[in-house]
Design a protein that fits this description.
The chain is an all-beta fold and 133 residues long. It is 0% helix and 36% strand.
């Protein structure tokens, strides 16, 4: 299997278009579903942020929450997650999963995690290394 690699030796980031900028109003949120990922998009002061839509605490939809001073407030327990780093201000060791975002000619693109290589049916290993996956 051939995989694209960064100069660091890590798998290259895979950016995909998830929405157009005009679909995401200033101060608003948008839920998109791409490649098995539920991604919450937020636009604050012309900056776009992307995080997993699932609250890491109880799994509620973060895109249904309220934006407030650089955070998204989860609708279930009102915990605030910072848009810049995903840290929960109420429980600092809890983080929402973030996605890197870039804007290309009006398109919002996010970097999805590298795809894992398939497991070998015979050995249970991934085939890229001896990690035992």
């Amino acid at each position: 299997m051939v995989r694209e690699m960064e100069s660091t030796g890590k798998p290259a980031k895979r950016y995909i278009t998830v929405a157009h900028l005009e679909e995401l109003p200033e101060g608003g949120s948008l839920l998109v579903q791409k490649d098995g990922h539920d991604i919450a998009l937020f636009r604050v002061q012309d900056e776009v942020f992307a995080m997993s839509d699932l609250c890491p605490h109880m799994g509620d939809s973060l895109s249904a929450g309220q934006l407030w001073e650089g955070t998204i407030i989860c609708p279930r327990h009102m915990w605030a997650f910072r848009l810049k780093d995903g840290v929960c201000e109420d429980v600092p060791n809890l983080r929402a999963t973030l996605y890197e975002v870039r804007l290309v000619e009006g398109e919002i693109q996010v970097a999805l995690p590298p795809e894992r290589p398939p497991l070998s049916a015979e050995t249970g290993e991934c085939g890229d290394c001896n990690c035992g996956r």
